[in-house]
Queue: 2 jobs
Job 1
Amino acid sequence: MATHAWLFSYIKQTLHTMLYMINCKPDYKKILQDRQILELYSHIDDAEKAPWAKHGMEHILRVVKNAKTLCKLLKIDKNTTFLTIIASILHDAGATEGKKNHREKSAIFAQNYLKNAHFNETDAQIIVEAIRHHASANPPLGLVHILLVCADKLDCSQSRILPSGYGVVGMRQSQFIKTIKLKMKSEKLFILFKVSPHFDKTEFTNYYFTKLLYEALDQLSKQKRVNCEIVFKR
Ligand SMILES: [Fe+2]
Ligand SMILES: [Fe+2]
């Protein structure tokens, strides 16, 4: 009986590896619908004692959307796009007990999750390191890392912030950002912030989080040799 179980597991693993090698990689939508992932992110917004911003599924879906848009506009290759989307899905999975050490916890969770999902070691390592260092794109660890940081930091409009964040200098400006859209025009990447009349650009651009976004976009423009411009429109 034990031999049968071992044989079944061996065949299953070999099939997964073969499918992965011929590029039948797991569908990221299946990971997004995975009960374990849904369950985990459903508790994350409740875990933070004084949450200023969301880290649950709504945030993840917006980061995935940002990652997909960036990859499409910059004509990023299929594999890098796939790895960036998976990193986006898993990047805050370790925030189940609040934001403290959540990057390291998310990296450990991702490492185990990707192993169980039969990702190859090289791909898993790229995703895990991008997640471990998603606070900043400096120093850059590669395109997946830079894209993840950009996609994450671009989620800073009014849908991200919670009422407890309205009193935090810098962050409170997010409540006046209605939408953030990405557009490619004449080989230039435009990040268009639609803001309300109360928006204070100086306060927002001096906020440490915004500086991290600018830094990540700067790394992206260096890597992809594309100019990025941030535009604020009332
Ligand atoms: Fe995070
Ligand atoms: Fe995040």
Job 2
Amino acid sequence: MPEENINKKWEPKIIAFFCNWCTYTAADLAGVSRLKYAPNVKVIRLMCSGRVDPQFILQSLASGADGVLIGGCHPGDCHYSEGNYKMLRRFRLLQRVLRSMGVEDERVRLEWISASEGEKVKTVINEMVDTIRKLGPLGLPGKISVYDKDLAELKNEIDTEIEVDIKPSGKEMVEHA
Ligand code: FES
């Protein structure tokens, strides 16, 4: 099937981790205010953006998500004082790891959205869906299986080389006997 046709059926899948006190409430407000945003986002509510372990983001992408959005309180407004600063530091480090894996920066986004910013939730989600639609599917599960295969081959090569190095040749064994 031509790639063009595959992409016609494909829709971006985005996982959003929203802090309970700000961004989740804003998403709720957007719903109550009947603001329309793309239905491509699955929202996971956490008590604070500081609870977002980088592993959650990697796991989402490895499980087939095309993008991850993290939403937290504005700097200085975190209900646990500095959870959002912790998230920001982890996010910067994770960006480097993702770049080295060939994942574009635009696929993982961190936004500060307060409880009253329903409009911003709508804008950010719609923007992100548009951007990812242009980038196309991430397809990390397929890439990971290729990485695993390469790694297994490399391990076999190394094991074989080590075996050759440490095995004494038959001649040496006779000489030692
Ligand atoms: S409580 Fe919202 S980011 Fe910490």
